[in-house]
Write a structure and sequence with these properties.
Order of helices and strands: EEEEHEHEHHHHHHHEEHHH
Number of strands: 8
Structural class: alpha/beta
CATH superfamily of the domain at 5-125: ATPase, nucleotide binding domain
CATH topology of the domain at 5-125: Nucleotidyltransferase, domain 5
Strand content: 5-15%
């Protein structure tokens, strides 16, 4: 374990206690850089279980108003989850937001310490919404779905390569494809076992899977990648999957509104479901045809139908409502 190193925090790396401080934590594979604002005290801890335990031990004594981490390819998840489980206010910001804020304040140099200082400034000035306390197995669920998607993509790619591969290189490909198929089946079994031990997730998955055309893989992806189903309003739920149009206007100019951002895996699942719904579901089919008759482009109408489908599902999950059978 890397020993804590203090810049201004007093003896043995112990920061001065001050109520209402804002904390910025920069994440890397080896150390975590922690900076407090407005005192600018800071220290390093190792990015492992002892280091996380040290954070959980030190930060509650400071009574932080907000702790901000930067999303770093999933490296921030264990630490942010541990602090949230300790009833500390934790927010996670995208790297682009943190970097844009640093550029806007004139900080062009980039080091781990400067990044942590900038995140503390973001916590004080922007006040990102703290994350709710996560369920103990929520991260494990998402990891299962992510791994299932990765194996499935590899299986699809290898099947396509097999068609154009030279004859000499095809000898071991069937065995490899069979192995990938077994891994996909094993992932499905792992999910089924996890669902039996997590009643709330099973109820959400059943509510999402009930609409026609939605199978277990799609419902698992939606539930795992969108744990806030049934909590957000319709505008927020659409923005989370990147289905909300963003304005592009300045003065008299009126640009084209377009969607961007959001969670790509969930948007991909909903897009495939929307293609089926606008052909067969009476409500969404009529909605799509009305937009097309009004002169909207096909993809614009599909995006609007995706947002409507997301709104319907979000409203269904909140009261644990099942999809009416007579609407199929």
């Amino acid at each position: 374990m890397r020993p804590p190193h203090t810049r201004r925090g007093g003896a043995e790396g112990a920061p001065r206690s001050q109520a209402g401080v804002f904390v910025g934590i920069d994440v890397s594979k080896a150390p975590l850089d922690v900076v407090l604002r407005p005192t600018d005290d800071g220290w390093h801890v190792s990015h492992d279980e002892p280091g996380m335990a040290l954070l959980v031990e030190r930060l509650p004594a400071l009574q932080p108003a907000l702790i901000v981490w930067e999303a770093t390819g999933g490296l921030e998840v264990p630490g942010a989850g541990a602090l949230a489980a300790a009833a500390l206010p934790v927010g996670v910001v995208p790297p682009r937001h943190a970097r844009d804020f640093a550029n806007a304040t004139g900080r062009l140099a980039k080091t781990d310490t400067r990044d942590a200082r900038g995140l503390a400034h973001v916590a004080e000035a922007v006040r990102p919404t703290p994350r709710p306390r996560p369920e103990a197995d929520a991260h494990a669920w998402r990891a299962r779905v992510t791994r299932r998607r990765q194996v499935g993509q590899r299986l699809t790619a290898d099947r396509q390569r097999l068609q154009s591969a030279p004859q000499r290189s095809r000898a071991d490909r069937p065995a490899h494809l069979a192995w990938l198929e077994r891994r996909v089946a094993r992932r499905a079994d792992d999910w089924a076992a996890a669902s039996r031990s997590r009643p709330l997730g099973r109820v959400n998955a059943e509510s999402v899977q009930r609409p026609p055309g939605v199978g277990p893989v799609r419902s698992r992806t939606v539930v795992a990648e969108g744990p806030e189903w049934g909590v957000l309003n319709r505008q927020e739920s659409a923005a989370r999957v990147g289905g909300a149009p963003c304005h592009c206007e300045s003065g008299p100019g009126r640009g084209t509104r377009s969607i961007w951002g959001g969670r790509a895996p969930v948007r991909a699942v909903l897009s495939m479901r929307t293609l089926t719904a606008v052909r067969h579901h009476p409500v969404l089919k009529a909605f799509y045809q009305r937009l097309r008759a009004a002169g909207k482009a096909a993809k614009v109408a599909l995006t609007a139908s995706l947002r409507k489908l997301r709104t319907i599902w979000n409203a269904m999950v909140k009261p644990r409502t099942r999809w009416p059978a007579n609407t199929a």
